[in-house]
Amino acid sequence: MAGGADTAPAPASREQPRGAAPALAALGGSRGPLLVTVALVAAIALALIVAYGLHDTAQRAVNGLVSGSYFALGAVGLTLVYGTLRLVNFAHGDLLTFGAYIAFLVNVTWGAPLVVAVLAAVVATAALGVLSERVMWRPMRGRGAGLLQLMLMTLGFAFVIRYGIQMIWGTIPRRLDVDVTGSISFLGLRIGRTELIVVVVGFVVLCAVGVMLRRTSLGRQMRALSDDMGLAEVTGIDTDRVVIATWIFAAGLAGLAGVLYTAAIGTLTPNLGFFLLLSLFAAVILGGIGNAFGALAGGLLLGLAQEWSTLVIDPRWKVAVGFGILILVLIVRPQGLFGRKERTL
Amino acid sequence: MHAGTRSRWLLAVGAIAVVLGAAGCGDDDDGGGGGGATTGTGAAAEAPADTSFDQTIGVLLPLTGDLSPFGAPGRKAADLAVSQIEGATRAGGVETTVSIESADTESSPQAAVQAARQLISGGASCLAGPWASSETLAVAESVASRQETPIVSPSSTDAAISDLDDDGFVWRTAPSDNLQSRALADTVEEELGGTDFTLSLAARNDAYGQGFIDKFKTAWEEKGGRTTGPVLYDPEQPNYNSEAAEIVRGDPDAYVIIDFFETYGKMGASLVRTGEFDAGRLFTADGLASDRIPDTIPARALIGARGTRPGTPESGAVVEAFGRLWREAGGAPRQTFDAQNFDATMLCYLAALAAGRADGPGIAEQLQAVSAPPGRRFTFMELADGIRMIAAGEEVDFDGVTGPIDFDENGDPTAATYEVYRYGDDGVLSVERQFEARAAAE
Predict the structure, then answer these.
(1) CB B242 to CB A174 under 8 A?
(2) Which of A319, A75, A147, A271 is nearest to B18 (CA)?
(3) Residue B422 backbone dihedrals phi, psi, to 5 degrees
(4) What is the pLDDT, as a whole number, of residue A342?
(5) Residue B201 lies in a domain
(6) How far is A158 from chain B, CA to nearest CA, in Å?
(7) Residues of B near A (CB-CB distance < 8 A)?
(8) What's the pTM value of the predicted model, to 2 decimals?
(9) Are A251 and A89 in contact (CB under 8 A)?
(10) Would you tell me how many other CB atoms lie within 10 Å of the CB of residue A45?
(11) Does residue B384 lie within any of the structural domains?
(12) Do residue A67 and residue B246 have CB atoms under 8 angstroms apart?
């Protein structure tokens, strides 16, 4: 069984593409590393509390939680697309940007309430994802395109989206009709009101996606595709439908992430998603590719590491600390914290 | 300065641009003495100079791209300078002719290098421009000192330009950020009524922010003030909650934050969210100066904030004369750094006249001499007298529309006009006063 995740044999997961057993196994398999991770984080937190006091440590943890939910929310679509379709989507960051600009159009240009803008962004971005599948990815898969071609196409798609946005809206920073300066104080800890919304929505959405993947038949089919698309098709799964569903989820969530991110930080530029993309990849890889809970954990760890590091060293190095930890984790666990060991191609 | 941000920003857009940018910085110019080693100020030819030569002044302009708003006014300023020169040569008793060739830098370092090469091969002996600091750095390293042709930028304020190993071929009529950081320290002292205060320092972590805040810290501590920080922050991060907490920690008497609007939208929001930030105690610089607070910035992060920015003198005979000249010529309206380009073009000619020949090394050798003391001071209003004095081999000190200029060893103006501005409750910027800042004597 996929017990000690280090030794999880690939065929084990492959022989049971459906049924509840693999889901349970995956849960069980992630318990070991989860415990180790939690223990490590707790130890670091304790050390920081001793050295810098409870309040500062807790406040930085809150800040880390906020950054972490940005990363996690953006990363979940990335991990879905890679997990299901084996597509390294460099355009994912720009899907976030696209969603944010659709929200800008609806919220600011047309003056509709933010909730409507969020819905419009999700729908429009999901539609863009499906369109890209129909126009680019499906024909390319049909012709047996290699990994490199697909990757370069996603990179090209990213540029097309980004410069398309620049063509329409220009490069000057824009903002949504949201007050980003309001904050809430709780037990002496402060968190921005819009930030709190992102954290809550991030957690709910990610857990929902995680449960969907494990409990629903669509989720099981998606995971079957991720194990072996050909085999899934042979067993009677309507792969086309599942792939479209994957894109609707992945791109729709990217649109949602783009709007929420913008609503929390205040400004948006055509480079918003592009600058975030590397952190999203880091969250995905840290948590384990193709795993929604992994994206959540990876994002939070990255955020915590970055913000806690500002207690110890100059804040301008916080990005390096985050990615340094990514490298360390990967040396110990190449498949990421909660990932399954994969066959190399 | 704005030029700096924008092109920096563009650079970040894609890996390709980054790679090209790195390639541009990679080729260091070949050796040579440090700084701009021009000879002493007394060098303005003892013997009467040869006063019959034809000079082509090249003008590098951002006619397209991010900085295109500066292109047409820049061109007009250079044209005005040349028509002034033409009008004064006869009265000044010299037989020089001056013509202008301009080329588009497309607001990009690569295109600027291309344009500079094109102008030089077309016979230009001195270039006014380029505009963005990134363009100036690129042209300085790959064209100016190699082809021994001086460039005089009207608008590059990056402090790094001072320290270029340029053999004396890189000049500018815009003041260095070094000068502004000292001017800001003076302003803070005056506004607070002393230096017995603790300032919390912060800046975006790039050449502009870090260079500025380090110089400011030194200047403030030399005055006897105390500082905390600086907190330097990466401009591409999603939020700055932890950084903002560091900045407001310990209730400092004032904050000094050096940033651009793109990043300050996020930093400002984080600062306000700390609940302890008071923008009335914030001092900043030209990077956050705009006619009114842009709507991407939370108003509470800037209302009441004060800062410095380079200005041109608003009053005085020279300034008024230049304004009149500009209006009468019709065409493009006034624009920031137009007068700096007028002065740059003027200096190209005056230095050639002092050298007695229109060639790059000769001009480079005379630029400091004609712009700085000792010598009789004159402005473009007394251009004919100035030309006569130079032709007679006398020492002169040209004062520009933008101020006394007085180039130092590095090719920077040692004096410049700064404005102290403040954002009112309605978010509108008002200029409270102007002053002239001078570089401390070395």
Answers:
(1) no
(2) A271
(3) -145, 140
(4) 52
(5) yes
(6) 11
(7) 9, 12-14, 205, 231-234, 236-239, 241-243, 245-246, 261-262, 265-266, 269, 272-275, 294-296, 298, 300-301
(8) 0.73
(9) no
(10) 17
(11) yes
(12) no
